[in-house]
Design goal:
By secondary structure, this protein is mostly helical. The protein has five helices and three strands, in the order βααββααα.
């Protein structure tokens, strides 16, 4: 199926301006009809889903552009693309470790407050029983 830029914008959630910028930067390369109008395919939809995933996981646009440029060159760049993805994967693993450490510390602080609140509640019940 083919999509106009407007349809593709609605489908992907990216503005027409962003799609044109991505095209200018070489990240997106839609086919063009005889009248020079862009049209996007389901293949482009899948590519945009991957771009979204890379963006949402914090890959800088510069690296996404580098990956896209290598992708355009075909299978001979598979090793380089894999290395970019491995580097990003390792970055994400490091971020997960940091976030898990933060979660553990927050959990301990929450448990501290739960004990504190429980203890005060239990003490207030005991003292009111004698009044």
């Amino acid at each position: 199926m083919n999509y106009t830029i407007s349809e593709f914008s609605q489908l992907t959630g990216f503005s027409i301006y962003t799609l044109r910028y991505y095209e200018k930067e070489g990240i997106l390369n839609p086919a063009k009809q005889n009248n020079n109008h862009r049209f996007y395919s389901n293949h482009d939809v899948e590519w945009m889903k991957f771009i979204i995933r890379l963006k949402e996981t914090g890959m800088p646009l510069k690296e996404i552009k580098q990956y896209a440029n290598l992708r355009e060159l075909g299978d001979k760049t598979a090793q380089q693309r894999m290395e970019l993805l491995i580097k990003h994967y390792e970055y994400l693993e490091q971020q997960l470790h940091i976030l898990n450490d933060h979660l553990s510390n927050l959990k301990l602080k929450i448990q501290h407050y739960q004990k504190l609140i429980c203890s005060k509640y239990s003490n207030s019940i005991k003292s009111s029983d004698y009044n």
